[in-house]
TrEMBL record:
The keyword Repeat applies. The lineage of its organism: Archaea, Promethearchaeati, Promethearchaeota, Promethearchaeia, Promethearchaeales. This is Leucine-rich repeat domain-containing protein. Keywords: Leucine-rich repeat, Repeat. InterPro entries: Leu-rich_rpt, Leu-rich_rpt_4, Leu-rich_rpt_typical-subtyp, LRR_dom_sf, SDS22/Internalin_LRR. Pfam families: LRR_4. It comes from the Archaea. Coiled coil: none annotated.
Length: 225
């Protein structure tokens, strides 16, 4: 029997083999959460699931992304709530369209160069200090960097397909760089230093804006240095 979807969450079970919860190499969806997994590559049999499309390994103890090279058909990967320090190990997962690594220990954005088909990227609640390493993500539409340590809106000039950008709870001081994002449809800037500055001239500003270019123009016309 080939399972189309598998979710395995019972906390008492310690995952050792992919075959413990999957039968058939054509499984498409796999969720293994709250199992104290430390090393993805040690899940025996996972590398045989070459048809896997969605993998959720959230709420584990993973510190490094490895063991996914054979999952060449993976289009969604969720690694929220782990202890990942570096974005590497995804060089062969070039079909990824959705990547979520929220609530980890990332300090920089690297290792995504081959993910040119990526549409959605979530790196919220990390320790990232600058936006970088996204130059090749020409199809990226939504980027979520809420709750990091970012102070400048830079590094997105070549991501021309970007439509939604969430930078809430960072250290953004001004709107410089936003004018380069011509196709951006939504911007979220709540709980940044710049939010207080914009509020001085627009009491109705709630921390987000549709058509950010209008916000940039409005601030240039009204904010005094």
């Amino acid at each position: 029997m080939n399972l189309g979807f598998v979710r395995f969450k019972r906390k008492k079970y310690r995952v050792k083999r992919a075959n413990d919860f999957i039968t058939g190499k054509k499984s498409r969806f796999l969720t293994i959460t709250n199992k104290k997994i430390e090393d993805i590559s040690e899940i025996e049999g996972l590398d045989k699931l070459t048809e896997l499309q969605v993998l959720n390994l959230s709420n584990n103890n993973i510190s490094e992304i490895r063991g996914l090279d054979s999952l060449i058909n993976l289009h969604s990967l969720i690694l929220d709530d782990n202890s990942i320090h570096q974005l590497k190990g995804l060089e062969h997962n070039y079909k990824l369209k959705y990547l979520s690594i929220n609530k980890n220990k990332l300090r920089e954005i690297t290792g995504l160069e081959n993910l040119t088909q990526l549409l959605y990227l979530q790196l919220m609640d990390n320790e990232i200090s600058a936006i970088s390493g996204l130059e090749t993500l020409i199809n990226l539409q939504e980027l979520y960097l809420r709750k990091n340590h970012i102070s400048k809106i830079r590094g997105l000039e070549k991501v021309r397909s970007l439509k939604k950008l969430n930078l809430e709870k960072n250290q953004i001081q001004d709107l410089e760089g936003l004018e380069n994002l011509e196709n951006l449809f939504w911007i979220f800037l709540g709980k940044n230093p710049v939010f207080k500055e914009v509020k001085k001239i627009s009491r109705t500003f709630l921390g987000y804006a549709k058509y950010p270019q209008r916000l940039v123009k409005y601030c240039k016309d009204n904010l005094q240095n």
